[in-house]
Write a structure and sequence with these properties.
With 478 residues, the protein is an alpha/beta fold. The chain has 16 helices and 11 strands.
């Protein structure tokens, strides 16, 4: 079977970028499904679960396994945070960067992506961690840049309240600038000599301090890690608000979307590509991966039956607690037909906009919110029907899919055994990995950020040492 004609592409459709969307916790997106007999996500503390999954995805030629993360509780639900623990709303959850270091040694090709918020780690420390991961993975690391929508997360890192939405992106602007300076500008490629004959380990003329001075950070440098294969990890981002789109257009190489339908996706992707061009980048410098989950059946009837069985074990309250926590609003203790109303929030504004756009009249009830979370990005059908639907998203500007799971590893096993062969028949999924780093595999160019990316401005920018910038203490004469 061949791919259907496309209104977006002049020639054959390009292949899709395919990522698995997971989290090192029991209950990630689909609340309650960890209770299903076949589900294994309750073993989230066990390394073999993740190694086996990463290897299964690598055998299937997935581009990446992407770990979400949070650094705080999802606010309150039903008057407190006890319900979050009872239902396991992304608590407990473990640090994905630590897990990636283990997965890096157990895989060879698959990309290893992790979320890290600007609030949780100083950019000097974080840049060093990512460079180390890029070294040990041989250039397969990606960073999903987030600003954290959870007030408890901000309170866990010295704040007294949730930083206002746009101010969080101002923070992110400085954070990535400092990281870019360390990754791109501190070491020249040939600075590390390791010359045993001369005894010269590194050429100090080719290593520079960065002297970053900004509203939040003061960093002298130099970067403590020599350049990795990618230098800067592949940059993902997931903000969809107006300010989030601006940040994405300037910085992201790929962005995760949760558009409620193809019309919204088409408008969003066009807007970000237009902003990327205005920022001096090429419109196609930003790729879009739509979050989707699939219920696969050999027949349509079988797929519908499986979808109904999955809905029987969904925990509606867990879904509401998760969504409400992102908004910063307690949605517990209210009838499910309660309308959301004119809610204003410093939380996840892009997500709120998407939910309103999914309901006629723009005023969803709590029931609508729960159904949105469980159904909006779901495709139920045969492999052929699912592939047809994915092509519709591709025509709407989407470059790939970020696959949400109901159960581990079953959701991915069903996709790999059912849908992936059909996508390959249509030329929409790769049959093998391209050589090189994750950036080379994803985008078909070199291992480093292209010259249109703002980080490129810091290459070679710190080669002149300044005694004034050093601000050294006075010399003591004895």
């Amino acid at each position: 079977m061949t791919s259907t004609p496309s209104t977006r592409f002049d020639g054959p459709r390009p292949r899709l970028l395919i990522s698995a969307f997971v989290m090192n916790t029991t209950s990630h997106i689909m609340g309650g499904q960890w209770r299903r007999p076949e589900a294994q996500q309750h073993r989230f503390n066990e390394l073999p679960l993740w190694l086996d999954l990463a290897r299964q995805l690598e055998d299937a030629k997935f581009d990446a396994i992407f770990f979400a993360d949070v650094v705080g509780l999802y606010g309150d639900y039903d008057g407190g945070w006890a319900s979050l623990l009872k239902k396991g709303i992304q608590v407990p959850s473990n640090d994905p960067l630590i897990l990636l270091s283990a997965l890096a040694t157990g895989t060879q090709e698959i990309g290893l992506a992790a979320t890290s918020s600007v609030i949780q780690s100083h950019p000097f420390q974080f840049a060093r961690q990512m460079s180390t991961l890029d070294h040990i993975s041989n250039g397969r690391v990606a960073w999903n840049i987030v600003t954290s929508v959870l007030e408890n997360a901000h309170r866990n890192f010295n704040a007294t309240e949730l930083t206002k939405h746009d101010e969080r992106y101002d923070w992110a602007d400085e954070y990535v600038e400092a990281a870019y300076k360390l990754w791109e500008g501190s070491w020249e490629d040939d600075a590390l000599l390791l010359d045993k004959e001369t005894g010269v380990h590194a050429d100090p003329e080719k290593v520079s301090k960065i002297y970053h001075r900004g509203p939040r950070y003061s960093i002298d440098g130099p970067h403590l890690s020599a350049p990795s294969r990618q230098r800067t990890p592949v940059l993902f981002q997931a903000g969809s608000s107006g300010r989030g789109q601006q940040f994405c257009a300037a910085n992201a190489e790929a962005t995760f979307t949760l558009a409620p339908n193809t019309d919204v996706a088409a408008k969003y992707t066009a807007a970000v590509r237009e902003q990327a061009a205005a920022a001096g980048r090429h419109p196609d410098d930003v790729k879009f991966l739509q979050g989707m989950h699939f219920v696969v059946g050999g027949t349509e009837a079988e797929a519908n039956r499986k979808a109904a069985e999955l809905e029987e074990t969904l925990d509606i309250e867990a879904l509401l607690a998760h969504v409400g926590g992102g908004f910063g609003v307690d949605l517990g203790g209210l009838p499910l037909d309660t309308p959301l109303g004119d809610l204003e929030t410093e939380g996840s504004q892009g997500h709120l906009t998407a939910i309103r756009a999914s309901v006629r009249g723009g005023n969803p009830t709590l029931r609508d919110i729960a159904l949105y979370r469980s159904r909006a990005n779901r495709v139920v059908g045969t492999p052929e029907q699912i592939a047809d639907r994915v092509e519709e998203w591709q025509d709407a500007g989407i470059d790939g899919i970020n696959i949400i799971n109901q159960t581990l590893p079953g959701s991915y096993t069903d996709f790999i055994e059912g849908v992936l062969p059909e996508l390959r028949r249509r030329g929409l999924a790769q049959a093998d990995y391209a050589p090189g780093t994750l950036r080379e595999k994803l985008f078909g160019a070199g291992p480093r950020l292209n010259d249109r990316h703002p980080a490129s401005a810091f290459r070679g920018a710190f080669t002149e040492f300044s005694a004034a910038a050093e601000n050294k203490p006075a010399t003591i004469t004895v």
